[in-house]
Specification:
By secondary structure, the protein is mostly helical. It has eight helices and no strands. The chain folds into two domains: about 5-75, Orthogonal Bundle (434 Repressor (Amino-terminal Domain)); about 90-120, no CATH class. Helix 3 (about 30-35) packs across helix 4 (about 40-50).
């Protein structure tokens, strides 16, 4: 589904520290997290012991949800998916409005945006 975005981040296992901290904040054991995520306790244990250097995105999504976070939170912590992009409400509205456009219409909108940016640079 996704390639590892930042191999160094996945290799340093900082995501495991985050996962353990979140599990402990919820008062969950490894077995509790395994049950809630639908994974085995061995899988959770292996992650926490840093014995799985290539985390599985599907497993991390399940763990994120079990830890009551956005499904991509742990994959982002592990560097498997890009970090979340913070956008303002107006930009979000533009994105929403353009989703229903066909390819040609989207190309026209993009061309207009680029033209406006070029005009601003010239000012």
């Amino acid at each position: 589904m996704y390639a590892i975005m930042d191999k160094a981040k996945a290799d340093n296992f900082s995501w495991v520290d985050w996962m353990i901290n979140e599990r402990e904040k919820l008062g969950m054991s490894q077995a509790d997290l395994a049950n809630k995520s639908g994974l085995t306790r061995t899988t959770i244990s292996d992650y926490e012991k840093r014995q799985r250097s290539n985390p599985d995105i599907k497993a991390l999504v399940k763990i994120s949800v079990a830890l009551e976070h956005h499904p991509l939170r742990l994959p982002r912590e592990a560097g498997i998916v890009p970090p979340e992009i913070n956008i303002d409400e107006f930009t979000e509205q533009i994105i929403h409005e353009t989703q229903d456009l066909n390819k040609r219409e989207k190309e026209e909108v993009l061309a207009y945006i680029r033209m406006r940016k070029n005009l601003r640079r010239k000012e």
